[in-house]
Fold this sequence. Notes:
- There is one protein chain.
- The chain contains six helices and twelve strands.
- It is of the alpha/beta class.
- It has two domains: 2-91 and 175-205, Periplasmic binding protein-like II (D-Maltodextrin-Binding Protein, domain 2), CATH 3.40.190; 93-173, Periplasmic binding protein-like II (D-Maltodextrin-Binding Protein, domain 2), CATH 3.40.190.
- The strands form two sheets. The protein has a seven-stranded mixed sheet. A five-stranded mixed sheet has the order 8-7-9-6-10.
Amino acid sequence: MIIAAPAPSSRLHAPVAALVEELFPGLAQQHPRTLWHRSADHAIVRCRGFDVPQLVASGAADLGIGGYDACVEWSLAHAHPLMMWALPPIRTSFVTFCTVAGRAVRTIWTEYPAITRAWVASSPTLRTARVVPLHGSTEGVIRADPAGGGVLLVTSGETLAANGLDHDVPLLATDVCLVARTPPVDAPAPLDVSSLPELHMPSFCAAPVGTA
């Protein structure tokens, strides 16, 4: 079995490496540029977090370990929901809409364009807002744009506060999960999905708005 998991640069790398330590001994101590590891009949490929669902969907990996947020974003963007199962919480964060209190938001800067478009479509006040994709560090441009809001990942809220973004609305909670095209057969412990709760798309994402 080939498993896709976050690379050493990811915030989820260390806890995921600890999760699969029994399956891949020594993974956490490997050189940070080592992105492939084999143990017995299984191999792990370490990649960017947003590429985990892509590798699973393409068939390059049988199973992925990644953020629920990245899996939802991929599923919406490609109008092709993947199967997801919850793992024990590791680092819960929130995909959050944020802005300055009192603003009339006309542009939403976001790391999650597909999630944002689905949420905006369900919002009576933001339905006509323009959605502009960015690749992180969005708080500054949100603060600088007098008609700007944003949808981004929030853990502690410190960066929002430091940039004066004092109005925030959590859209979904995210933590590490398993992702696959179909339920994997004979997945090794602790990745056996038969005992794990299945995760579903957020309620505002019920109608896919993908681009593919």
